[in-house]
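The following record pairs a protein chain with its ligand, zinc ion.
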Amino acid sequence: MKMPICDSCLRGGPLCQKCGKKLKEGKISELDVEVSRALYELAREYRELEGIELERALRERGLTALVVRGSTRIADEKDEIIRKLGERLNTRVRLAESGEEIRKLAQDILAPARVNGVNILFKKGGGEEYRVRIKRTDLMLLPSGIDTLQKIMGEVTSKDIKFVFE
Ligand SMILES: [Zn+2]
């Protein structure tokens, strides 16, 4: 398990000097600490989680998105783990694999809403906009509001993301 805080801090209590410094300097966030500890606790029940690396955690309006490495290891238990993490963190949770293509990231974060595809739009004056095409009939299945999800997708991918419903 590779987490933003050290093993002894994963167990709880006040952060050690080293991790406390990282928090103070903004290298890690309170959310990183909270999510790391929740994953650590859940790993007692789901040993597969020990192969996971937490890269980043983002939270917007009741949705926590985790960018991880090694999520294929938990593929079989993923839905259950996400649900239990949600209970611990008191938000909905979505898990995305770091470095995946945008379509796959969108699918993981927007589930159970279905993604039809992603188009790249080259904007006048430079830059690209990624249009994530979502099934219109799945609008109600989105795990949070459109603005919130666009923002999270933008942060996860470092791209200009816009949703279109079709
Ligand atoms: Zn520590």
